[in-house]
Design brief:
Number of strands: 5
Distance between the termini: 96 Å
Order of helices and strands: HHHHEHEHHEEHEHHHHHHHHHHHH
Strand content: 5-15%
Largest sheet: 5 strands, mixed
Number of domains: 3
Helix content: over 70%
Oligomer: single chain
Number of helices: 20
Length: 461
Amino acid sequence: MNYISDIKESIDLLDRLKNIWESKKTIAIILFVILTSGMFLFNKIDIHKINEQITGFELLILTFICLGIWIVWLLTRLPPRIKRNKIGIAIAISTENDKSRIRFKNDFIENLRDVIRRGNHQQLQLISLSEYHSEKINRLKLVKQYHKKTKAHLIIYGACKIRTHEKKESYYFKLDASVLHRVLPKVISNSISVEMRKVLPPSLIFSSDDEIKGFMVTAETIGHASRYIIGLASLFSGDVFTAFDLHLGLISEIDVIEKKQEELKEDLLTVRRLVPFHLVDEALILARVSYLQKKSNYLENLCKYLEVLERFDPRNYVAHLMRGIYYFLAKRDTEAALEEIKKSRNERDNTWQINEAFLKAYKGDLPEAHKLYKRALVGLLKENVPLETEGFIYDILQLEPDKIQLWYCLGIINYLFKEDLKLAKEYFEKFVELARKEKKFLESVSFAEKYLVEIKEKFSN
C-alpha cells in the first residue's frame, strides 16, 4: 500500500510541476535567469560593464540556448492530440487548487475512461487537457481552435470548484460542450444543441463527504452524454455506423441495469427516452445500405437492424417491407414475407403491391401478380422502385433459373413501369419461349403475346 501511495504522490508532484511549467511566468523567469547567469559566467563582471565586455559570439550562444529552451517549452505545453482514425473526446475542466485537481485526475478521469470503454467502443479516445489549456478555453472561449489543435470531435469544458452547499463542503461542476459535425441547416444544428443540453446538465453538485461516489456518478453522466452526443453528431455527419454503434451500446447498457432491477439514474432515463428515435432512423438507413450493397453476412446485419426496428417502431412501413425481403432472401419463407406485406398496406406508396406481386409470381400465381402490377400503376410509386425491383428479380433468376414466370415479371416492369420497350420485348419473348416449351402459365403467355404486339406497333410508329 505504501508503494502505491508513493507512486500516486509522485504522479501528483509531476502534475503540479507540469502546471507550473506551462505558465508564461515560468518561461519568462527561466529565460531571464539564463541570460543574466550566462553573462556573468562568460565575463565575471558586474552588470554595469556588460555592454563593454561581452562578445557577439557569447551573446549568440546565449540567444541559441534561450531560443532552444523556449521552443522546448512551446512544444511540451501543446495539448495532446487524438490519434488518426479515432473519435476523440477532450475533457477541459479547470480546477481551483491542488486538492480538487488531484481528486479530479485520480477519480473522475479514470472513472470516465471506464464509462467510455463500455460497449467495446474501440474507436473512442479520451484525452484530458492540462490546467493551463482548460483555463484558457473557459476564459477565452477558444473552443473551435482547440478542436483543430486536439482533433477532438467533442470537447467538454468547464470548471470543478469546491464550494459550500447546504452547509456542506461540496464539489461544484460547471459544464458546457462543443461538438464537431458537418455544416447543417440552422434548425437541425439548434436541435442538436437542445439535445446536448438535455443529456449534459449545465451543473452538477455532490458533497465532498462522499467524493468517490460523487466523482463516479459525475463520470457516468458525462460518459453517457459523450457517447450520445457523438452518436448524434455522427448521424447528421453521415457516419451512421458509428451513430448506431454508440446509441445501441447505450440502450444495451440500460437493458443490463434494468435486468438487475437497479434504479436508473436521471441521465440514463433521459438517454432511454431520446435514443430510440435516432436508433430507428439509423437502423432504417443501415438496413437499406446492407440490402443494396449485399456484402458478406449482409443478411445477418439486416436481421440485427430489423430487430431494432421491431423493438422501437413495430409499425414502421419501410421496416415491414424490408422484413418481407429478409424473410424471402434468408429462408425463402414467402408466407412470412406476405404477412409483412399485409401489415404494410397503405395508400401513400404502392411499393408494397410491387413486392406482393413478386411473391405471388414466385409462388406461381401469375394472374394475381398481373393484377397487382396493374393496381400499382395507378397509385404513387417512388422513382427508384422499378429499377431496384428489376435488379432483385434478375438476381433471383440467376439463382433459380427454373422460376421462368419471373421473366414475365421483368417484362411487365420494363413495359408498364420503366417504359423500356427493348428490354420488355426481350423478357416477354424469353418468357413465351420457356412457358410454351414447359407448357406452363398459358394464360400469362397470351398476355405476353398481346404486349409483344403492342411493343411492335410502338416500334413501327
